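Worked Example 4.2. Consider the chain below.
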Amino acid sequence: MTEDRIKNILLVEDDQDFANLLLSKLEIKGLDCDIAASISEAKEKLCQNKYKLISLDVFLGEGNCAEIVKYLQESKEHMNAEAEMIILSSRVNEEFKERMAAKSIQAFSKMTDLDTYLKQAEALGSRKMQEHMDLIFDAMDGMEDSDELAHLTIDLPELAS
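Applying the procedure from the previous section yields the following structure tokens:
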């Protein structure tokens, strides 16, 4: 894969109408996006293309987004292992946002956070994330225990204005 073939965003969303709405809004901003409607389709696209951002719906027909997160976390050599991940779902509440923030994953509600999500997706999809990855890897350095990693909190700079 050549550097010029890197795509900005993979939208993992099983509601095709909503996925197309997001796609049109992000493409207007000049972002190159793909849609995956299932976990298996997402894994296939993740093996074919490199992405800067992976946007995940929580509940997908055959499972939930945790399977994709785990797939990438267990595959340190995967070309998308360092892609930023955010969650956009109708099932997101404040408690869920806090739990995901503790794992350095931002979560947005489809009902109340769509404008904020679009700003953040644009920022993450169009900007190099190396500085964030350096902070994450520095914080994880020397951690072997999965319990330590599960409770890891990293303060990342805000990207959306």
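The chain has one domain: 3-150. DSSP finds seven helices and seven strands in the chain. Compare this with Example 4.1 before moving on.
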